[in-house]
Amino acid sequence: MTEFLLNYLVGYWTPQEIAVNCTAILNILGALVLGLVVGYERSYRGRAAGMRTYGLVCMASCSLTVIGGYPEYWFGSHIVLNADSIGVTRIIQGIISGIGFLGAGVIMRDGMNISGLTTAASIWVVASIGIIVGVGFYGTAIVMAVVSAIFMMWGYKIESLFPSRHAISITLHFTKNTVMTEEYIGRLVHGQGYEIAYGSFSIDLTEGQTVWRFVAVSYGRGRGTPLITLGETFRREDGIQNFHLAHARN
Fold first, then answer.
1. Number of domains the chain is built from
2. What is the pLDDT of residues 194-247, one digit of tens each?
3. Domain end among 160, 182, 212
4. Does one domain contain both 156 and 173?
5. Which of 74, 78, 144, 203 could disulfide-link to 135, CB 3.0 to 4.6 Å?
6. In sequence order, what are the residues at sequence separation of 6 or more whose Cβ sits closer than 8 angstroms to the Cβ of residue 225?
7. 120/22 same-domain check
């Protein structure tokens, strides 16, 4: 019995299995790097989905695609099958669909600030790791788990090495009958190292009082003034009755 179990387990670590796992590992690492490249553009512009989110999603998607190409090596090659002859692929499809709903539940929006995207991406990665373990690609699953954990813990340090532009959510309450122009407010925030994000404007009018909501993005790391300094600028401005400032990832 012990010898049978040992031989069974060895089937998961044959030279062929190891070679396939190495191929999968190289693919997921490459996908991680490419995802980081695309995510940097979003991170640079102060968007909620940045390098970590894009990198994790790209890596998880690649891992499932790669193992789908080697069904003959599933379960340590102990079962002769192909991807279309069993219900495993349908099970995987069901898992991914269900995880999508779970991930959506941890994404929160508070005004113009969105949080939880990296957590949702990490749930997607964990689901992929579970699937990979289930089909017997243990080496790939181990490397993917280690890389994901390291990247989620210290990924923000990688982002901090590159130029970035942080975003500020701004809400301005003007006094009644005050006439204000976007160009004037644009020059005001420009003097503090920010520019108004295109397409972020929202204007409300309640009982004669105008309320503007928009996002301002800094011109670069260290160029945008702190919130306190920006708040003092608005406080001294005639016609602005109240305001609200907050860091935003939109």
1. 2
2. 888 877 788 888 777 888 888 888 887 777 888 888 888 888 888 888 888 887
3. 160
4. no
5. 74
6. 192, 193, 194, 233
7. yes
Q: Range of 69's domain?
A: 2-160
Q: What is the DSSP letter of 175?
A: P
Domain boundary among 118, 137, 160: 160
Statement to judge: residues 121 and 98 lie in one domain: yes
Q: How many CB atoms lie within 10 A of CB 226?
A: 10
pLDDT digits (tens, 9 = 90+) for 175-206: 887 778 888 888 888 888 888 887 778 888 87
pLDDT tens per residue, range 117-132: 788 888 889 999 999 9
Tokens representing 147 are 């890389």
Give the residue among 14, 135, 9 at the shortest CA–CA distance from 74. Answer: 135
Q: Is the pTM of this model over 0.85?
A: no
Three-state secondary-structure class, residue 204: strand
Asked if 176 and 140 sit in the same domain, the reply is: no
> H or E element: which one contains 144?
helix 138-160
Instruction: Name the amino acid, one letter, at 125.
Output: V
